[in-house]
Amino acid sequence: QVQLVDSGGGWVQAGGPLRLSCSASGSICSFNAMGWYRQAPGKQRELVAVVLRGGDANYADSVKGRFTISRDNAKNMVYLQMNSLKPEDTAVYYCNAGLDGPYNYWGQGTQVTVSS
């Protein structure tokens, strides 16, 4: 049983940075894919970024060039560095483990609010 705890959300003005953290109770080395999703009001949950065990990362087109996902396998941590934030980035962000595997886990979510 793996538990994920999301943190780092908050309020930020447009153009500013924010870093989200995901802390896992177990080894994230067990999961090839670690990712961040977000869900804005009235919208479906959207994959924002994914990082694989070896470090390769992929991003939604809407965040390419602005967000960076990373993982520290030794610390069982996943991060999402968000720069140049836009109001449309406002959402609840969720950490995910193991989307491409037989088991899938979610963090509780952390709210990110970007003001104009």
Description:
This protein is mostly beta strands. 0% of the residues lie in helices and 51% in strands. It is built from no helices and 11 strands. It has strands at residues 4-7, 10-13, 18-24, 33-39, 46-52, 57-59, 67-72, 77-82, 91-97, 105-106, 110-115. Strands 2, 4, 5, 6, 9, 10 and 11 form a 7-stranded mixed β-sheet that branches. It has a 4-stranded antiparallel β-sheet with strand order 1-3-8-7, with no helix packed on it. It is globular and about 40 Å long. The chain starts with a strand and ends with a strand.
Task: Please mark out the parts with pLDDT under 50 across 5 or more consecutive residues, or reply none.
Answer: none
Let me know the number of strands.
Answer: 11
Main beta sheet = 7 strands, mixed
Number of helices: 0
Q: Percent of residues in helical segments?
A: under 10%
Query: Which series of helices and strands comes N to C?
Result: EEEEEEEEEEE
Which terms summarize this structure?
0% helix; globular; single chain; mainly beta
What would a concise description of this structure say?
This protein is mostly beta strands and 116 residues long. Helices cover 0% and strands 51% of the residues.
Spell out the blueprint of helices and strands.
Elements: E1 4-7, E2 10-13, E3 18-24, E4 33-39, E5 46-52, E6 57-59, E7 67-72, E8 77-82, E9 91-97, E10 105-106, E11 110-115
Parallel strand pairs: 2-11
Antiparallel strand pairs: 1-3, 3-8, 4-5, 4-9, 5-6, 7-8, 9-10, 9-11
